[in-house]
Amino acid sequence: MIATRLVSSNSLIPGNIVKSVCRTVSRGREKDKLGAKRNARQAGLVDCRGKILSLETLPAWRESLRQAGKRLAVTNGCFDLLHTGHVLYLQDARAEADILLVGLNGDASVRELKGPSRPINPALDRAVLLAALGFVDGVCVFEDKRATQFLQLAQPDVYVKGGDYTLETLDADERRAVESAGGRICLMSLVPGRSTTTLVEKMVSTQGTEGEAAKLHLMGVVALQQGDWSQAHTLLQQALVKHPSLVDAWYDLGIVEFEQGNLPAAVEAYQTCLSHSPNQAEVHYNLGNAQYALGQRAKAQAAWLAAVRLRPTLALAHYNLGLVAQELGEPDAAVDHYATALQLEPDHQDAALNQGDALREARRLEEAIEVQTGFLKRHPGHSSGLNNLVATLTQARRYEKAMQVSNVLLEQQPNLTNAWINRGVLHQRQGDMASAQRAYQEVLTRDPAHADARYNLGMVQLCMGDYAEGFAQYEARWQTANPIFVSSKHSSLPLWDGQPLDGGRLLVQTEQGHGDAIQFARFIPEVARAGVEVVLQGAETLRRLLSEVEGVEEWISPDSKPTNCAAWCPLMSLPHRLGTTLESLPAAPYLKAQPAAHMTGEGLKVGFAWAGSAGHENDAQRSMPAEHLAALLNMPGICAFSLAVDRAPADARMKDLRDHISDFADTAACVAALDLVIAVDTAVAHLAGAMGKPVWVLIPHVPDWRWMLARADSPWYPSARLLRQKTPGDWPGVIERVQSALAERLIAPR
Known about the structure:
Blueprint: E1 6-8, E2 18-19, H1 33-42, E3 51-53, H2 58-67, E4 72-77, H3 84-94, E5 99-105, H4 107-114, H5 123-133, E6 138-142, H6 147-154, E7 158-162, H7 172-180, E8 184-188, H8 196-203, H9 208-225, H10 229-242, H11 247-259, H12 263-276, H13 281-293, H14 297-310, H15 315-327, H16 331-344, H17 349-361, H18 365-378, H19 383-395, H20 399-412, H21 417-429, H22 433-446, H23 451-463, H24 467-474, H25 483-486, E9 505-509, H26 514-520, H27 524-529, E10 533-537, H28 540-546, E11 552-556, E12 565-570, H29 574-577, E13 604-609, H30 619-622, H31 630-633, E14 638-642, E15 655-656, H32 664-672, E16 676-680, H33 683-690, E17 695-699, E18 720-724, H34 731-747
Parallel strand pairs: 1-2, 3-6, 4-5, 4-7, 5-6, 7-8, 9-10, 9-12, 10-11, 13-14, 13-16, 14-15, 16-17, 17-18
Helix pairs in contact: 1-5, 6-7, 8-9, 9-10, 9-11, 10-11, 11-12, 11-13, 12-13, 13-14, 14-15, 15-16, 15-17, 16-17, 17-18, 17-19, 18-19, 19-20, 19-21, 20-21, 21-22, 21-23, 22-23, 23-24, 26-33
């Protein structure tokens, strides 16, 4: 079973970790320079005089002006086009000299001005538009905070600065750069003026159908940059009617459709653009954004991968790839993508935040703590950073330090939901279920429907034996962001409400681990006795075992489509639908098998399962180092068998059963031939208990909910004996008690 979720501003383990992780896909309209110029020519914008420059090409261009005897006026800024005052300002600035050069601040500045929820108009888009409109003779794009270098290279005769500046308030470095070149400074105000659309109409050639399309396209871009989505949509569609292969118009139409929330139409527009011009990184990037917004994560991932193949320096795409890799359960890949994004854009705060959480998800805990601590040094008091550090410290079992950080966070933000959820997980990991329950209730007092809080509270209630409330809250797992639950939802059948189906069949899907399926199979006969035919869907390794459970009419594989089913229900939701309480648990045994003939040997036949799947999120706590078994294997009268099918026997004295086991029916046949099973919390323990075989379950200090608290027996499995760690990690103490119990068993008559 999946443990309680830690929420990170990404998620923890015995409690849903609440994620303050930045889950916002980076958005932006990115065009590379060559592609923008090429596409502009294809659109018919061939009459522009402007040259698009970089800091590298600027000196040679400036020298050509000197040789031609031309005086240069320079201005710079973000120029969030098309503010009509900016248009008139540029016309006035151009009158100050023979040539006007505009410096455009890079996209980071525009993002900062507009905020994360607004689309940006990348500098290169604005450069192309300025040049196309013919207002300027040159446009130089430079990265943020390089305006001084731009002025030093441009060496202007006149520096025109717009806004409410005085010589005293002008940036001192910019002023020195101009004066050192012998230039003068001209201060101007921005004055509102006439409609920019009118200027566009006058300045773009309208010769022929392609010319008409070019004019409509450019007018659409102006409307787009002014945020008039309806007008932009109309103009771009008109342009495409006249010129259906106008690549940039399809691209811009995709942006407009996206901003209006027409996501399928945005995808179609971007795909049409790529059908004409497949090697445009920015189109693949925006296509991925639209697909991600539609919930098509795998397709979005493919689109962003195409974008970075075409342009490896596209930091936003690397960030998004990290985000979607986390959501698809690929944390190591996410770490690499975030690292690349940070190499390209070191100040990308969200990438730095998520990188630490991805390291936690990859169980690279020391690295995660180092990254998260470094993040907090750069961003002291950052609430999501603090919350994520609590999650990682909790997972690393550094409980004292985690509590210290949690206290700081809750003192700073006492109403922060995710902080209370991770506080609950922290208490839960230490076995303090009452305090964990209070933490989750703190969240639910303000937000009764909060999925992570309900899910985690349900786990606590189940651990404390309150099955009616616990299973009800456990249903909230389907509303959490955990990809295991999200990917398990059945999309076509209605969810069963526990009522009779009037003869229709019920599809029951196994979920989570094999042990969960074995434990909860006991509820299927209860459903069948209520007159409902059950079609059970699960892994092939369980088919022969569970298809024999009373009430299973048909077994289908996970990739098969059910037929003649009226509803579906997750297997682990059956106790809630049936109103199960601790007192009404269906009894074991409910599974059986014929003993395997190959299980021969002298003495007490004992099967050992000392470790579970390494992929389990809590495996470090539930599995036991193999060397602890030596004390038991040294006891005379023990005939030992290894029930671990994914690893070699822990000791040469164990009989290796791997050649005899291909599925759980084979394992059941082996268990049937044993006198005793000794197992940690794995599927083997559930199998032995479900068969009524004596099983000693070795439990970590803080147990999974099903083993409850402080009990030596299990209401789920009457044949089970529970041996618990008295302190965290105390496997030697558990083995000592097992050894004493085995000694008693060996001298008792059989």
